[in-house]
Structures are given as C-alpha cells and as structure tokens.
Amino acid sequence: MYSHIKKMALLYVIAIFFISLDRFAKMYFFQNFTKVVPINHFLSLQYAENPYISFSLPVPISFIKYATLLLGIILVFVFIKFYKKNNTLLNFSLFSLILGSFSNIVDRFKYGFVIDYINLKFFTIFNIADSLIFISIILLSYHIYTIDKKKEKGYTKQMIK
C-alpha cells in the first residue's frame, strides 16, 4: 500500500511538472510571439494560435469553449468515480488527461484559442498539454485492453482492479 502511494505521488508530481512547464511555455511564447527557436531541421519552438479543436477542425469557437469545459468537468467526475487505490495506470492516465485538458481550457477562456508552440515541420504544431492528453488516451486504451483480456481469461470482477 505504501509503495503504491509513493508511486502515485511521484507520477502526480511528474504530471504537475509537465503542466507547469506547459503553462510557463504558453506564457513565454504569448509574450514573445515573434520569437522562433529552431531546434533542428524538423523541430522548432514558435508561437501559434489554435482556435479550433484537434487537427484544426473548423467547429464554432463558442461551442468548443463550453463543450471542452463540460468534458473537463465530466473527466473530474470520472476520475473520482473510478479512482482505485491499487490501479496506478488508470489513476495516472485520468489525472494527466484532466491536467492537460484544463491547461487548454484555461487558454480557451483566457485568450479564445489554445496556444501551441512545438512545431514539427512536416506534421503539426502542438503543446505539452496536447502531448499529455495523447499519452493519457493511449494509457487508458491500454488499460481497457488489458481489462478485456483479463475478462476473456475468466478473471472475476474482484480480481480486476
């Protein structure tokens, strides 16, 4: 039990660190929006405004603003409902998903768009919160996949945590 608490505390600190870094980078690039920091031929750091949702899909901005807030609130309730003392993967992925989502929601309400700053030249421009959301979705998918596999092997509900 104590080992699980230490593991969860470390993972939460890591997630909070990355979201703090994301918020700092967003403030920095918002204030220095003309500055481009080249890393290599494929990667640079630069300011970009994304008023739309993933992959810049054109959805009305007022709808996005409140829909993302509602989804963020739902995520908090899901986290509370499904928090399991011994399920590090589920807890960390839900916590990271909430942090990443709320970092982008703050941008939507404060600026009317999400600030992106990591530019992969031939792909897209995104931010750390987007990366955390993406990684969280992959971890949640893996968690669901492993639960399905355990159910196929005949484990009981009490055995699946």
Question: Which labels suit this protein?
Answer:
161 residues; four-stranded antiparallel sheet; alpha+beta
Layout: helices, strands, pairs:
Elements: H1 2-31, E1 36-38, E2 43-50, H2 61-82, H3 88-111, E3 114-120, E4 125-126, H4 128-152
Antiparallel strand pairs: 1-2, 2-3, 3-4
Brief rundown of the structure:
This protein is α+β, with helices and mostly antiparallel strands. The protein is built from 4 helices and 4 strands, in the order αββααββα.
Strand content: 5-15%
Number of E-state strands: 4
Stretches where pLDDT falls below 50 for ≥5 residues? none
State the major sheet: 4 strands, antiparallel
Helix content: 55-70%
Numbering strands along the chain, what is their spatial order in the largest sheet? 1-2-3-4
Helix and strand run: HEEHHEEH
Radius of gyration: 18 Å
- Counting helices, strands and paired strands, the structural category is alpha+beta
- Domains, number: 1
* Envelope shape: globular
Mean pLDDT: 83
User: Oligomeric form of this entry?
Assistant: single chain
Can you count the helices?
4
Distance between the termini: 14 Å
